[in-house]
Every structure is written in C-alpha cells, then in structure tokens.
Design goal:
- With 75 residues, the protein is mainly α.
- It has one domain.
- 51% of the residues lie in helices and 11% in strands.
- Strands 1-2 form a two-stranded parallel sheet.
- Helix 1 links the parallel strand 1 and strand 2.
- The longest helix has 27 residues.
- The protein is flat, with a radius of gyration of 16 Å.
- The termini are far apart.
Length: 75
C-alpha cells in the first residue's frame, strides 16, 4: 500500500488527542517501505494542511499536463 504511491494522507489528525495511535510509528513504517513518500497530515479543521494538499494536487496536475503535451508533440 505504501510502496508505490508518491503521497500518503494521514487524515483526521484533529482526533489524535482522543485516540491511541502512534503517529510517528505510522510515518516511520510508511517510510521504511517507501523512503521517498511525501506525507501530509490533514485535519479539515485547519486550513494549513489542506493548503499543502491542494498545492501538491496542483503541482501533480501541472506535471501531468506537461507530460501529456510532450507526448502529443511526438505524435
């Protein structure tokens, strides 16, 4: 699950004070499987983390469009 993706979203971080969940262990396990994975911790209650995810999505979209344009140039 963590080997192929470029991004991991850890969602609902606003609930962490109420849960028995080791965030650092989760991140460490994901990075053991995929050292290059980008991890964004999200909470819908804070705009900061949502902006980081949105920025990542925009960058990926731009990269995909650039790749598509390059491929069409060779057709």
């Amino acid at each position: 699950m963590f080997q192929a993706p470029d991004l991991m979203l850890l969602n609902k971080t606003d609930l962490l004070p109420y849960l028995d969940f080791d965030v650092q262990q989760c991140l460490d396990y994901a990075r053991q499987v995929n050292p290059h994975i980008k991890i964004i911790q999200l909470s819908a209650k804070t705009a900061d983390s949502m902006k980081e995810w949105y920025d990542w999505l925009k960058a990926q979209s731009a990269k995909a469009q650039s790749t598509k344009a390059s491929e069409q140039a060779f057709v």
